[in-house]
Amino acid sequence: MSCDDIQKANDLIKKTGCSLLTGSILLITAVPILFFCSFLQIVVHQDSPRGRHFRRVGPREKVYFESDDVHACIVTCGGLCPGLNTVIREIVCGLYYMYGVHKVLGIEGGYRGFYARNTIPLTPKIVNGIHKRGGTILGTSRGGHDTSKIVDSIQDRGINQVYVLGGDGTQKGASAIFEEIRRRGLKVAVAGIPKTIDNDIPIIDKSFGFDTAVEEAQRAISAAHVEAESFENGIGVVKLMGRYSGFIAMYATIASRDVDCCLIPESPFYLEGPGGLFEYIEKRLKENGHMVIVIAEGAGQELLSEIMHTMDQQDASGNKLLQDVGLWISQKIRDHFGKKRKMTINLKYIDPTYMIRAVPSNASDNVYCTLLAHSAIHGAMAGYTGFTVGPVNGRHAYIPFYRITERQNRVVITDRMWARLLSSTNQPSFLDPKKVKQSKEEGKLDTQLFNHAPKILNN
Q1: Does the pLDDT at position 243 exceed 80?
Q2: Is 200 a catalytic residue?
């Protein structure tokens, strides 16, 4: 491919797409008549004062792959999430009906399914009603990523489009597959569709399944509220998902209006003493006679580590194994009020974790999953590779893998949404005055915490 050919291709690319945010993605080639020779880097408005932009999703005027030559595969990895089956269905149907692609394989059991030779053919008839079911018809697993074996399998099977559904760990694996494919010079498009109900993937506005998770969490919170208000000094404790990010707990709390206290990983708390959780619980019980506490699974882990002296352990995906903070805090509340305060309380603990992620996606997520699936199809057919799809500031875009794996999206407790939650629950900040004072003296006080606790610092 000559420099003139590359320039012509780039000129055509500029005419066939719009732009959005910072970053770049790679293109196999947007023009079918050009020979595949090297990956072209697409950067829109590179020298603009607004920075480099992601390219907008959507069908292109010309595509790289001929329909009859496409051999696509779909794999789901990591934990379950509402909407997985919907995305699978829409990829299959989209390839069939929009591009006339009839060779689509499902890789069973996550990444290890590539080299275990487990596949099932996927057709619109097979996937027709799967969106009404939870889970994934392909099965899933954590770990099992062997880049060399996976790419060997892709090469042996003649696969030239790979659609990867999974969270940040899965997308890192997809990035490794893309890099190995590029190193070998294969004409294979690798497209990611980010999945996590924790909503902790950065750059994109939200991940699919999140709306369904928040909606389903309402059932558990409602049940906890009914139990709590039906007994004297009733306390309902609900543990929700959120290993590092408390988005589900935060949004479910705001949506519910029945929650008196929300605890998330981003906002530290302490139990005893002035301004602590126990003092607040006692106050609410005296005022209302009952209360509901929502706690994310990753909240308070530093308190458990201090008490249990646990070692850092990880699961097959590299995620830190967490202690059950829901059971722990429930027992601490019982011990404090039963033994120390001599108060009779009726505490009910509800853990709907796996119920929430195993349900089918709701109407909102079904629509969203369709958009994501179609965006990935259009990108792969046009010759884009090494990207994931998702909305950025309300506009769907193609995002390079490295941009969504470099960090995690977390709740900002100085942001407006957390302020809205505090207004709804009327809970205190739970900042330990001693630690705040010590951090202030050492000059190590977190800006978020500093701005969040003016009353404590002024005392």
Answers
A1: yes
A2: no
